[in-house]
Amino acid sequence: MFDTLDAVRDDFTRRIESAATDRHLPMHLAVLSTRDADARVLVLRAFDRDSWTLRFHTDVRSPKCDIIAQHPGVGVLLYDRSAKVQLRIRGEARVETDGPVADAAWEQSTNFARRCYLGDGPGTLAAQMTSGLPPQFEGIEPTDEQLIPARPNFAIIQVEMREIDWFFLSHAGHRRAQFARQGEGWEGRWVAP
């Protein structure tokens, strides 16, 4: 099944492409780790195969945005339990609030999703359990006009992939390969699991 490095590269490429577009796949939810050793689950929104870039959405007021600005090196973990495949990705992240990619990401989002950026910033202290949303938007989809104040809080995180560690669990014996970006392509090698 995975007997060549080309087959492994095809496998991880296909998995990432599919996960970015199919919310039902396990790898659609990724774990992003920043320099401060903090990890959080984010939705994989897009994958650009030409630039080997992953895209996530975030609130620009989130502490992770400041961490990434200071230390852009990040890790991304994708795991598919049923397929027994784990991808550990290292890359360089950047936060974008403006520009064609961020604008398109905002436009492609639903108003229900955009409402998350209307409320308090992530980590804001609260006297009681809260969604952080203004009360008038709890369970309600705002109008385009009501969402105008939300747009400045919206950002994307672009992660340019530099290294991939592919791991396959198997009763016959686990398999592992590592890949590093070399120009436009990837250079791979087998390693012991």
From TrEMBL:
Keywords: Oxidoreductase. Residues 17-95 form the Pyridoxamine 5'-phosphate oxidase Alr4036 family FMN-binding domain. The keyword Oxidoreductase applies. Its EC number is 1.-.-.-, 1.4.3.5. GO terms for molecular function: pyridoxamine phosphate oxidase activity. Coiled coil: none annotated. It comes from the Bacteria. InterPro entries: Pyridox_Oxase_Alr4036_FMN-bd, Split_barrel_FMN-bd. This is Pyridoxamine 5'-phosphate oxidase family protein. It comes from Altererythrobacter arenosus.
